[in-house]
Design a protein that fits this description.
The chain is an alpha+beta fold and 293 residues long. It is built from 15 helices and 9 strands. Strand 6 and strand 7 form a beta hairpin. It binds a DNA duplex (13 and 12 nucleotides) through helix 6, helix 9, helix 12 and helix 13.
DNA sequence: TTGCAGGGGTCAA
DNA sequence: TTGACCCCTGCA
């Protein structure tokens, strides 16, 4: 059957999506935007999102999504994998100079996942002053402690805990995830969320500066985390999350001297405009993997 | 074996 | 603008 230009074939194990361009699972799942996808021995990735466990396998130009059906593909995964966006257009638009051309060619199969807002918020609070393997472990333990079980194959997985579940958890229960001082932020943000009830739609209606301002009111959320949340949950794409890596790359390759956060962001806004978020992602992936600067 | 630096920042002074 | 911060890992 056809769905929005894609030919999809449903079988007993999942859904095959034919001729998907600009889709490389390793670029998508290892570019630092998500923490709940694990590489399997066969090169496929298994992940948890939207209360489901799926396995994603690329076979040439086709993508096989296991443990799902056509309805979920249409209602969830089409949007989650941003399949409605033409990445070829984005890539040619941001590849304005040699640096960006190299970065785009390096991460050519990258896509920005439209992840769940709440999970993204807590995940990036956990990411601060932390490294990816440990971030993944903390999120895993937090989910095992406060999330709900899902079985897939012979394994048990856990959904990401709701704001209600986290705000009801005691400090001891949250502390089991070994998040250190971030555990206080998790509890504080969960409690605030139970009152504030901010959601994706809420933030989409706001201007980017206003949406950022709203997020900055949550404990543990600074400028970097706020921009990551806006970008990786698909709310705003004109943000330019600036961590130490992006800062180093921008200083060494573009600005050619030490620069403040504000300076880097205004440079990016001027150069990449509405596509700053995509540019950042190609740049970050390229810089990290090649250990640039 | 033990000690120490540093990690995709944030907060408070 | 600067240092502390919880915990884990890699490396002398």
């Amino acid at each position: 059957m056809k769905y929005r230009g894609y030919e999809i074939i449903e079988n007993s194990s999942g859904v095959l999506v034919k001729n998907v361009r600009d889709f490389d699972p390793s670029h998508i799942f290892e570019c630092g935007q998500c923490f709940r996808w694990n590489r399997e021995i066969d090169g496929s990735y298994t992940g948890i999102a939207f209360w489901r466990v799926i396995n994603v396998h690329r076979d040439g130009e086709n993508i096989l999504i296991n443990n799902t059906g056509a309805d979920d593909f249409k209602n969830i995964w089409y949007k989650y994998f941003d399949l409605g966006t033409d990445y070829s257009e984005i890539k040619s638009a941001v590849a304005k100079d040699d640096i960006m051309r190299r970065a785009v060619s390096y991460g050519c199969g990258m896509r920005i996942l439209r992840q769940e807002f709440w999970e993204t918020l807590i995940s990036f609070i956990i990411s601060s002053n932390n490294n990816i393997p440990r971030i993944m472990k903390i999120i895993e333990k937090l989910s095992a402690q406060c999330g709900e079980e899902i079985k897939y194959g012979n394994k048990t997985y856990h959904t990401f805990p709701s704001a209600a579940a986290l705000s009801n958890a005691s400090p001891e229960e949250i502390g089991i995830c070994r998040g250190g001082y971030r555990c206080g932020y998790i509890s504080g943000t969960s409690a605030k969320m139970e009152i504030a009830r901010i959601d994706k739609k809420n933030l989409e209606k706001k201007s980017t500066p206003d949406a950022r301002k709203t997020l900055l009111e949550f404990p543990g959320v600074g400028p970097k985390v706020a921009d990551c949340v806006l970008l990786y949950s698909g709310i705003k794409f004109d943000v330019f999350p600036t961590d130490v890596w992006v800062k180093r790359v921008m200083e060494s390759l573009y600005i050619h001297k030490p620069a403040s956060l504000g300076k880097i962001q205004s440079f990016a806004a001027e150069r990449f405009g509405a596509l700053a978020g995509f540019a950042q992602q190609y740049l970050f992936y390229y810089a990290r993997k090649n250990k640039l600067s």
